[in-house]
Amino acid sequence: MSPETTRRDKRDQNLAHRAPVTRAAWQAWLWPLGLFFAALALQTLAKRKPHLVEHYYSRTLFPPISHALSRVNGLFAFSLAELMVIAIVPILIGAVIYQGRQIYLRRRSARRIIRADLLTAIWIAGSAMVLFLLIWGFNYEREPLGNSLGLAKRHANYEQLEIVSAWIVGGINSNYDASRSGQGPPRLDRAQLYELIESAYQHQPLLAALCGGGYAQAKPVHFSGLMSRLGLSGIYFPFTGEANFNAAQPDFDLPYVIAHEKAHQCGFAREGDANFIAFLVCSNSTNAYLRYSGYLNALNVVYTLAAAAPDRYPRTSTMLDEGPQADLRARYAFWARYVGRASEMSHRINDSYLKANRVASGTRSYGEDVALIVDYYFTRANT
């Protein structure tokens, strides 16, 4: 046997040993990647069939899922979501230290560790995305809320915007006075606030078939100062089914913010829809302070009038009493303290998150409650 033949046989033998390893390596990547792309395919399919999502998922499958999560997180007074986020930090730090030690002691190569970490990250991303869609995410693809509530799809003209703006300002002024009754700011403890919001949900006729309440109460975040720096007034965490809110923000915004997060808890994922539900629930509450919070947070209609018809805006804006104006100045002063890189980064992440869930307008979707409020006003006026 010639030397060349011997070398060729050795090469063939080496390739024969390597081939199974290479196939196994590819198979290890195919499963998590397949899971990830399967989630994307499901999301795309759901986007094309909103009526099926509405009937079979949002109204049939999701409510028992959300109630089950509520029963679990309701056993704890603190936010499980916050605890999970906090726990991730030491876990990641510990993993980095451990892997760094493995590399230093030459027990594993940096290349093998990076490959294993990347594979784990893809597994986690794919699994989390599938779980997210199943326990909440498909709600982004449900039918528009206006359709479910039977609201007209009107394009409001300047005159209609001005009429609704005057109605909102009137609601702000009257409920500000009624909530004070000459005794200063109202003092509602958290238990009273939660009970009033829950009652408002359960007694709102438009939501009877969509969100009857009975979910776990909203939870204040312990690190609310950090939430403020991130520009967040509240957040819904789908993996625990918790409605969390920033306890540091002005009190007059709390009813609306809590009602907004509970709308997510009911399965209304789009921000404009959650805003409208929060307005609907608060503005129709039996409590004047909740009504005030609802109307005050509906000022987007007035701001839309200012952008669309600047000449009509002054007539409406001057109707706002000094008390509510002072609250608006207090709100502005509070959030102005936290404007910076952290809040800007948080805004970009939120915008990307919404667009990844097929909300084309991203964070601008928060303003989509304006059309619903206008439709609600004129629909109610004609009944």
Characterise this structure.
- The chain is mainly alpha-helical and 383 residues long.
- It has helices at 3-48, 50-73, 80-104, 110-135, 145-149, 158-180, 190-202, 224-229, 254-265, 271-283, 288-296, 300-308, 313-317, 322-336, 341-356, 369-381, and strands at residues 219-220, 234-237, 242-245.
- A three-stranded mixed sheet has the order 1-3-2.
- A hairpin with a 4-residue loop joins strand 2 and strand 3.
- The termini are far apart.
- Mean pLDDT is 89; it is low at 14-19.
Question: Quick gist of this model?
Answer:
The chain has helices at 3-48, 50-73, 80-104, 110-135, 145-149, 158-180, 190-202, 224-229, 254-265, 271-283, 288-296, 300-308, 313-317, 322-336, 341-356, 369-381; strands at residues 219-220, 234-237, 242-245.
H and E order: HHHHHHHEHEEHHHHHHHH
User: Radius of gyration, Cα only, in angstroms?
Assistant: 26 Å
What is the spatial order of strands in the main beta sheet? 1-3-2
Helix count, DSSP H or I runs of 4 or more residues: 16
Mean pLDDT: 89
Provide the β-strand percentage band.
under 5%
* Mass-distribution shape: globular
What profile does the largest beta sheet have? 3 strands, mixed
Low-confidence stretches: 14-19
- As a percent range, the share of helical residues equals 55-70%
